[in-house]
Amino acid sequence: MTTRRGTVLVTGTSSGIGLATAVTAALAGFTTVATMRDLGRAGPLREAADRAGVTVDIRRLDVTDAESITTCVDGTADTYGRLDAVVNNAGISNFDPTMEMSTLDALRANLEVNFFGVVAVSRAAMPLLRAGRGRLLTIGSVHGIAGQPFNEAYCAAKFAVEGFMESLAPVAEAHGVTVSIVVPASVVDTSFGVFPDINRSTVQAASGPYAPTFAAYVDGFTGQGWDAAGQKSQEVADVVVRALSADRPAFRIPTSQWVSDYLATKLADPDGRAVQSLARTWIGSTV
User: Fold this and answer.
1) Which end of the chain is flanked by fewer CB atoms within 10 Å, N or C?
2) Secondary structure class of 252 (helix, strand, coil)
3) Of the listed 154, 210, 217, 262, which one is catalytic?
4) Which residues of 72-85 are buried (b: 16+ CB within 10 A; e: fewer)?
5) Can you give the pTM of this predicted structure?
6) How does 15-29 read in b/e, with b if 16+ C-beta sit within 10 Å?
7) What totals of helices (H) and strands (E) does the chain contain, helices first?
């Protein structure tokens, strides 16, 4: 592995993986443009950068706002004369019990941020990345490989990201841009998906006829090693920055051995039976 240095733009840096990645990239010597939708939430990032003794350039970028994306990407190029890498990290979670009990607006909102937001930022950055033979890196999820019950919209978006980037990767590579997806499991020290007015009781109460299945799912899910599989944001950020620095990173980069083993279940499952069997154990079904 050799060291690459340059300008990297990271989305969704107000907390969690994005915050840790921005600081870690700066520590590694990258000029780091750390973006977020709401600059009023930049305090924790500034404090983390100060503690680490690094400087990050904090800018507004809303992945659902085309003008915001253009302003940020073009502004970065104007300031630094280049853009060497992008880390697509911004995203949202959802707590709708099933697609039947949700609304189409809620489902579309999830896809808008988690899929189309990634595409929009990538499209805007690609001419600069192509000019500098740069790197496009996206934070995926194990749920973009194997579907998770009661999380259909999020999984759909992450599946879409996987397919989009897998299709893009060989074409981008032919024009000098390396495309990778970093795949973490659950991240235990982030505010992602945490809302004070939503918990197991409220989701279960909104599940209608699916309430017993949801209860079985939560009990089974927490009892099958997922808590132990959780990682901290810094662990994932370290993997991201290693991928930014490597000569030839893989397309799909698991962040732990647990993730590698989990992905192997799906990727060696051509007829889908293994994943469906695993999912049935999560909801207590013997069908």
Assistant:
1) C
2) strand
3) 154
4) bbeebbeeeeebbb
5) 0.88
6) bbbbbbbbbbbbebe
7) 12, 7
Q: Is 154 an active-site residue?
A: yes
Residue appearing with tokens 């004369």: 81
- Calpha distance 160→10 (Å, rounded): 20
Residue range 7-198+230-267, CATH number:
3.40.50.720
| 143-154 CB burial, b ≥16 within 10 A, e <16 | bbbbbbbbbbbb
Helix, strand, coil share (%) of the chain residues, nearest 5: 55, 10, 35
Residue 224 has pLDDT above 70, yes or no: no
Q: What is the pLDDT of residues 188-197, one digit of tens each?
A: 776 544 444 4
Closest of 226, 242, 246, 223 to residue 234, by C-alpha? 242
SS3 58: strand
Residue range 233-247, pLDDT digits in tens: 999 999 999 999 999
Q: Helix axis angle, 233-245 relative to 16-27, nearest 10°?
A: 50
Put residue 59 in one of left, alpha, beta given phi > 0 → left and psi -120 to 50 → alpha: beta
Find residue 179's DSSP bridge partners: 136
β-sheet bridge partners, residue 181: 138, 252
Q: Rounded to the nearest 5°, which phi and psi values hold at 194?
A: -105, 115
Question: Token pair for residue 109?
Answer: 């909102």
How far apart are the C-alpha atoms of 247 and 224, rounded to whole Å?
37
What amino acid occupies position 256?
S
State the Cα–Cα distance between residues 231 and 80, nearest whole angstrom: 34
Helix or strand holding residue 85 (H, E): strand 85-88
